[in-house]
């Protein structure tokens, strides 16, 4: 049984086997969580992302998919990069957002990760409504078979923390 915990704070300060990055499809860094992970994790993450772009993901990582790299200088073994849907562009397609969590857990299982820290995927510049994103995230993690022992949602502010806490009640 997977334990789900909530933490308010900075995902780049978490100690976990894997930290999930809400990446953009380029895998080359960006704003929000993505930029913070690349800045704190250092150049090793970007190097591996560039190699992935040069090999398997020439057109970028598709929305809803996930891939792992080193965690560089973060207190983790791996970063699992997943591309969340843009709310307006996807028409609010919940299956794409759920896929981010499912695919990240699948990659975590392949790696042997036991603790995984997730941000609230797509809730920043991709504008997914927080309450709906929290519902999708919690339901998907609860209903996805995985060997991961702890899923930790690391939430940046009070609003996000409260939305996820309501889903756990």
From TrEMBL:
Pfam families: Macro (PF01661). The lineage of its organism: Bacteria, Bacillati, Actinomycetota, Actinomycetes, Kitasatosporales. Transmembrane segments: none annotated. CDD domains: Macro_OAADPr_deacetylase. SMART domains: A1pp (SM00506). It comes from the Bacteria. NCBIfam families: PRK00431.1-6. This is Macro domain-containing protein. InterPro entries: Macro_dom, Macro_dom-like. It comes from Streptomyces roseochromogenus subsp. oscitans DS 12.976. PANTHER family: GANGLIOSIDE INDUCED DIFFERENTIATION ASSOCIATED PROTEIN 2-RELATED (PTHR11106), MACRO DOMAIN-CONTAINING PROTEIN (PTHR11106:SF27). Residues 1-169 form the Macro domain.
